[in-house]
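[Discussion] Sanity-checking designs against the backbone

I'm trying to build intuition for which residues belong where. Below is a C-alpha cell string of 233 positions. I'd appreciate it if someone posts a full sequence so I can compare it with mine line by line.
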C-alpha cells in the first residue's frame, strides 16, 4: 500500500490536482480541473457552487466512489487511486460516512436496519451489537419512537435524520454530505443542519458538506466555491 507523509498529522483527506473528464463515445465533458483540497480532523467545510459546477462529482471522487481522470486522492495517508474496488470499499467503511441528497435509504428495511447496515458490512460484527448501536444513535437524532418504521413511513426530515444516523454509526473520521438539507423546507433544513453540527462536534469528526444554502455554508469553518470545475479565487 502506498503511504505518504501528510503535511500535518491532523489531515484526513487530501486531493492533489484532480481532474475529471466524462467520456461517452465522441463526447467528452471536462467537469473538474486541477483541484486541490485538504480537510483536517474535526474541520467543517462547505462547498457551494451553481448547479452543474461539479460539486457531486467532486464529493464522489473524494469519497472513492469514483476515480479521477487525473490527480490523486489520499485518505488517512493512503492513496485511493491505486486501490481496487474492494480496498476502496473497506477504506470508505472504516473512515467515511456519506449523507446523500435523496437519503438513499433501503425502502424494505426499518430505520434500525438501515442505520445498522454499515456496521453489518464489517466482518465479525454481531447483529445484536450493530442494532443496539443503531438504536442508540436513532435516539440521539430524536427518532427513538420511530425505530421500526420504514423510510416510506417517515417524513422527509425524519428520513434525513435516519440518513445522518447511518452515516455516523461507524464513528467515521469524516462525513461527506451532498446537500443533506436540499429537500427540506427552511425550518427542517435548519434543524437537520443543527443536529448534524451538534453530532459533528460531539463525535469530533470532520464534515465536508455540499450546499446550495449560503446561510448554512456561512456556519462552516471554511467555504469553498466551485465554479465551472475550479475553485473561485
Ligand atoms: N456520468 C456523467 N457523464 C457525463 N457527464 C456527467 C456525468 N455526471 C455528471 N456529468 C456532468 O458533470 C457536470 C457536473 O455534475 P455534478 O452532478 O457534479 O454537478 P453539481 O454541482 O452537483 O450540480 P447540482 O447542484 O445540480 O447537484 C454536469 O454538467 C453534468 O451534466
Ligand atoms: Mg449535485
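Best answer:
Here's mine. Compare freely.
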Amino acid at each position: 500500500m502506498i503511504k505518504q507523509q501528510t503535511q500535518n498529522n491532523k489531515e484526513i483527506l487530501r486531493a492533489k490536482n484532480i481532474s475529471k473528464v466524462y467520456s461517452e463515445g465522441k463526447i467528452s465533458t471536462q467537469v473538474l480541473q486541477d483541484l486541490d483540497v485538504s480537510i483536517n480532523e474535526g474541520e467543517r467545510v462547505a462547498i457551494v457552487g451553481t448547479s452543474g459546477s461539479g460539486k457531486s462529482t467532486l464529493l464522489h471522487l473524494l469519497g472513492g466512489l469514483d476515480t479521477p481522470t487525473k490527480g490523486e486522492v489520499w485518505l488517512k495517508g493512503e492513496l485511493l487511486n491505486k486501490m481496487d474496488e474492494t480496498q476502496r470499499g473497506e477504506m470508505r467503511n472504516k473512515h467515511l460516512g456519506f449523507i446523500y441528497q435523496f437519503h438513499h435509504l433501503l425502502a424494505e428495511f426499518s430505520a434500525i436496519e438501515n442505520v445498522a447496515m454499515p456496521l453489518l458490512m464489517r466482518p465479525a460484527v454481531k447483529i445484536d451489537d450493530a442494532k443496539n448501536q443503531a438504536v442508540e444513535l436513532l435516539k440521539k437524532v430524536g427518532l427513538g419512537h420511530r425505530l421500526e418504521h420504514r423510510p416510506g413511513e417517515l417524513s422527509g426530515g425524519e428520513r434525513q435524520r435516519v440518513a445522518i444516523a447511518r452515516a455516523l454509526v461507524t464513528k467515521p473520521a469524516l462525513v461527506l454530505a451532498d446537500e443533506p438539507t436540499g429537500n427540506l423546507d427552511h425550518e427542517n433544513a435548519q434543524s437537520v443542519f443543527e443536529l448534524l453540527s451538534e453530532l459533528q462536534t460531539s463525535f469530533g469528526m470532520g464534515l465536508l458538506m455540499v450546499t446550495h444554502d449560503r446561510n448554512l455554508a456561512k456556519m462552516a469553518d471554511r467555504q469553498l466555491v466551485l465554479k465551472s470545475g475550479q475553485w473561485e479565487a
